[in-house]
Amino acid sequence: MNDNNLLNDRRFVMVSSTASAVDPDGPTTFAYRESDGIIWGDYTGDTVVHGRFVGTRDGDRLEITYVHLLKTGERAGGQGGSRIETLPDGRLNLVEEFQFAGDDTLHVSVCAEVA
Predict the structure, then answer these.
(1) CA 79, CA 100: separation in Å to the nearest integer?
(2) Which one, of 53, 65, 57, lies nearest residue 29 by Cα?
(3) Fewest C-beta atoms under 10 Å: which of 28, 37, 88, 106?
(4) pLDDT at 2 (0 to 100)
């Protein structure tokens, strides 16, 4: 995956997470931007009022730092690494391993590109 702007203007929805239950009627939605391997974006939905992330992509690997405000009023942040998978129809999946700051628990989420 050598396209320097592969993720630019792509949208994803969370389909599974070990950190929380995913609401199939209102999953967290992620909007990605990318320029020359630098990625950033925002997300909202499910348990999140508003979230932001920034990071880098090298080939099929992402490394990000994130922060968000939960509907409970709490803030949460951390870092993660994702693997990009290409589906047979050309859409992408992001398989992310992440940790919240101050917590040693490793979580896994899967996000699917919105066609």
Answers:
(1) 7
(2) 53
(3) 88
(4) 54
User: pLDDT digit string (tens) for 14-23?
Assistant: 999 998 889 8
CB 30 within 8 A of CB 57: no
SS3 of the chain: the string is CCCCCCCCCCEEEEEEECCCCCCCCCCCEEEEEEECCEEEEEEEECCEEEEEEEEEEECCEEEEEEEEEECCCCEEEEEEEEEEEECCCCCEEEEEEEEECCCCCCEEEEEEECC
> With a threshold of 0.90, does the pTM exceed it?
yes
Hey, what's the torsion of the CAs at 19, 21, 26, 28, to 10 degrees?
10
Tell me if 108 sits within 8 A of 96, measured CB to CB: yes
